Structure formats: C-alpha cells, structure tokens
Amino acid sequence: MNTTGYILVFLAVGILFVIGNYFLSSLLRPFRPNAKKLATYECGEEPFGTAWVQYNVRYYLFAVFFVIFDVEALFLIPWAVVLKSLGAFAFVEMLIFLFLLFIALIHVWKKGGLKWV
Amino acid sequence: MTLQALKHLHRFDGGLAYFLATGKLKISTLGIHYQIPWLHLFPLAAWIISMFVMSGIVAGFVSVNVMALVWLERKVSGLIQNRMGPMMINILQPKMLASSKNPVLKWISVWFGGWLQTMADGVKLLLKEDIIPVNADKWVFITAPICVFTASLMGYALIPFAPQFPIIENLNIGFLFIFAFGSYTVIGILMAGWSSNNKYSLLGGMRSAAQLITYEIPMLLALLGVVMMTGTLKMEKIVNFQRSLGTHHGHWLILYQPLGFLIFLIAGIAETNRTPFDMPEAESELVSGFNTEYSGFRFSLFFLSEFSNMFLSCALGATLFLGGWSGPGSSYGIIAFLWLMIKAYGLVLVFMWIRWTLPRVRIDQMMEFGWKVLTPLALLNILWTGGEILLVKIQGYQHQYLYIWFPISLLVLAMLFMPKPKKKREHKLKFAPFL
C-alpha cells in the first residue's frame, strides 16, 4: 500500500498535470481548422502515400540485441548488490557468464550484425 | 499507516505535508501548533491529500526548473557563439542597468536580460492552435506526449533532493525505477513517430528508439560499478555511503569510478537526444523528427520532457557519482537541496557545453560507438570493480584509492597511444566567448 500508493498517486498527478494544462490551453486557444492545415507535413509538397510502411529490418535486429543485453544487466544487478558478501566464488561465476556474453558480442560483431549500413 | 509514521515523512517541504496529514502546523522556531480539528480523523484522506500536494510541488518544480533550463541553454549558446541570447523580455529589469557603465551592472544586464523569455514562449505555445492531422492515428497521437512527459516526471520521485526527501522512500529497486520509466519514453516517442503518419516522424521515432535502447545498456552497466561498491540500489543509501567514505565530508564516487562516470555521461547525452547524438531530432534532416506534426501545447510537452529528462539524468549523475546532497552544512534541508542543485546544474552546464561545441555524428558512427566501444568498456569497468572489491576483501586492503588506479592508468595509456592528428589547422579561429 505504502510505496505502491506513492507511485500510483504520483502517476495520477503526472497525468492530471498534463490533462489540466491541456484543458487550460483548450479554453484559450483558437480552433480554426482547414484542409491545408490538417494535411500531413512534407516540406510543402502534397503528401506522397502513407508513412505506415514496412521499415528496415535492422531496427528489429538491434532490438533483439538490446533484449539480450538488458536481460544480462538484469542478471547482473542482484549479483552486484550482494557481491561484497558472496566473495570470490560468485565473482568467478559471473566472470564466466560475462565471458560467454562477450564472446557472443564478438560473434555478432564479426558477423556484421552491429554494422549500421 | 499510522500518524506517527507520517510525522517523519517529509521534513523538507517546510512542514506543509505534515500540516496536511496531521492538521498541525509545525513551525518549531515560532512555537505555533495549530490543529485542524477534523483532518486527523481521516488518516487515509489526509495521506492522499498530502501525497497529492507533494507530487504537485514536484510537478511545479519540474516545470519551473525546465523554464530556467531553457533560458540557461539559450544564454549559454549565446555565450559560446559570441552573442547575447534572449534580451528582450525583461520587464522587471530597470532600463538604467543596460546603459550603466558599471561592469557589474552591465554583466547583470547582459546575463539576466530576457529572463522571462521562456515564460513568454510557454504562454505563446499555450495559446497556439492544436492541430491533429487528418491522416494521423488520433488517440495514439494524443496519448504519446502524456506518456513521454509522465515518464520523465516519474523519475523525479526517486531523486533524493535532500535528506529524507525522496517522494518514494522505501523503494528497494531504487534507480532501476528511473530506468523502468525511462523505457516508457521510448514507447511514447515510438507512438508519436508512428501515429503522425509522416515520414520524417516515423524515421525520427525509429531512430530515437534504436538510439535509446542502444545507450541504455552501457548506462546500466556503468551504474553497476556503483551498485557493486555500495551494495544497494537505493539512492538515499548510495548518498550516505559516499558520505561515509574517506574523511569526514566523505568522498565522491567519481573518485573510484571515473570510467563509469565517463560512460554514464556519454550515455546520458545520448539518452536525452542531445547534440552529438541528436539524429532523432536532426532539424536539418528530419525537421525535428518525431514531433514534426505536433503543435501548440502538445509540442511543448515534448520540449518540456526533453529538458526535464536532461535534468533528471544530471541529477542522477550528481547523486550517484558526485555525492548527491552531501556537502558542508547539508544537515539543513534547504542547504542540502542547494548542494544537489549546484552539482546537477554543473553537469547541465557540461551537457550544454558539449551540445554547442560538437557537431552531430552520423547515425552509423553513433550506433557502432555505443555497441563496440561503450558496452565493452562498461563490461571492463564491472570486471575491474569486482576484482578490486575482492582484493579489498581478501587481502584486507584499507586503501580505498586502489579503485582509482586502473581507470587513470587506462586514460594515460589511451593518451599515450592516441594517434596524433596528421595535419595542423592552418587558420586558428579566435575563441573568445567571454567578450
């Protein structure tokens, strides 16, 4: 209740702050739409087709790499918190894990996966 | 939750939350004890009201602070580019200041000229028409700025601005919370880019997402060194750990983690989309990227959250590496707050200096720098910190400066083996920003 309540109240205040300001602005601002104004901006040209197209696959690749390394970081955090009390054994264990992941990074690197063409 | 616990909640806000929660006005120097007769009968209501007031104070602080930051950014850019920056909107400043011969008054009139400029810009944006393009995905378009701004606001709940001040005090995951909400920024930016149905916005949104997730990894890994040394994720405890290090005023963790701090700084600049890494908002290529279609108040939300994110990462860096609120006289809440603000604003000035000095890098350079340089360096930092902790533990070294040797020797080695620039520049520009 305590901490979660704080988070929820804070979140609510954040959203209310935005919505309140937006409401305030809606009382003050003009509203005179026309077709030209509501068109998609494309440097003054007529918009050419839709932007909702298939985009490059390498964004997906980088997202996958991110997930791998983020999970690695999540594994590292509990280890880092208790490292002082666990001592050498835990450190060597994590070294092996890090080494394997580093090999993976080198592999991806050599395969050209990290290249942004 | 009992009222006894409420008493110790927020000491920093001058007793306001305490007053709201218990109905007692507590100004100890004046000896006033005023009690609203009914409020203490409803502890839940009192708690909710006090929380709302506290978070309202933080939201107000964020907006005022962002105004100051925007003004400072324009002034600093003026300083670096040998011009004055905003000078017009200074209604409360007497005219005689500008025409005065006194150098101090002159300096004040140049530096604080236009100090209300951001306020004027904010009012202007509030009065602008709000345009939602016909082709846009309307509800996603509307939700995106709320998502981005709220995510950046949530981070402030965790920053210990003063002793016992963080709004959310007993959160075990500590600064991971900031990262968790930082990920919502990515989602918000993707939503904005996708829903605008504009090619520039889509490109900017995708680039921004790729950049944010790339630099989040070295940032997290760099902060792991801090976690390994302090053995906790709580920001308050990390500050107290730094106070307990070394002599009576404590040592800052930057002394023991210079490499980690450097990685954090670079990744922080990239995370906040600032200039060496500002491809997502590249004005000259993408017409400011994911927020091209946004206008009026929605645009100002993106602007606000960009600057508040910048201050957030500076405050995070100041807390984790520069001792947070600790400093001489920090037993008083307000002085501790001032210390944190000074440190955070120092980092902000570094950010601005970098932004207005360096040109934009290419996107492939940026991505490859993140993956091929920063991530291995962060892993190296973890390795070294762990090794040092073990050495201290096993060998019983008390000499804590051991931590500093390796990064410094690394820097010296890097400087020794750095390839020298081949050609000298023929014309040296005169750099005189303080004229």
Descriptive report:
The complex is a heterodimer of chains A (117) and B (435). By secondary structure, chain A is an all-alpha fold. Chain A has a domain at 57-111. Chain A has 4 helices and no strands. In chain A, helix 3 (58-86) runs antiparallel to helix 4 (88-111). The longest helix of chain A has 29 residues, at 58-86. Chain B is mainly α and 435 residues long. Chain B has 3 domains: 3-67, no CATH class; 84-127, no CATH class; 129-416, no CATH class. Helices cover 63% and strands 2% of the residues of chain B. Chain B has a two-stranded antiparallel ribbon. The longest helix of chain B has 38 residues, at 43-80. Chain B is globular. Chain B starts with a helix and ends in an 18-residue tail after the last helix. The relative contact order of chain B is 0.11. The model of chain B is unreliable at 1-14 and 25-34 (pLDDT under 50). Classes of the chains: A mainly alpha (117), B mainly alpha (435). At the A-B interface, helix 1, helix 3 and helix 4 of A face helix 3, helix 7, helix 9, helix 13 and helix 15 of B.
| End-to-end Cα distance of chain A | 50 Å
**What Rg of chain B, in angstroms, do the CA atoms define?**
24 Å
SSE string of chain B: HHEEHHHHHHHHHHHHHH
In total, the number of strands of chain A is 0
Instruction: Determine the fraction of residues in helical runs of chain A and give it as a percent range.
Output: over 70%
Q: Kindly provide the radius of gyration of chain A, computed on alpha-carbon positions and rounded to a whole number of angstroms.
A: 25 Å
As an assembly, this protein is heterodimer
**Strand tally of chain B:** 2
Overall spatial form of chain B: globular
Q: Element order, helices and strands of chain A?
A: HHHH
Structural class of chain A: mainly alpha
Overall pLDDT score of chain A = 82
Instruction: Determine the most extensive contact between two protein chains.
Output: A-B, 67 and 80 residues
Beginning-to-end CA distance, first to last residue of chain B: 59 Å
Rough outline of chain A: flat
Q: How many separate domains make up the residues of chain B?
A: 3
Give the rounded overall mean pLDDT of chain B: 77
Instruction: Report the total helices of chain A.
Output: 4
Our count of helices of chain B gives 16
Biggest sheet record of chain A: none
The helix content of chain B is 55-70%
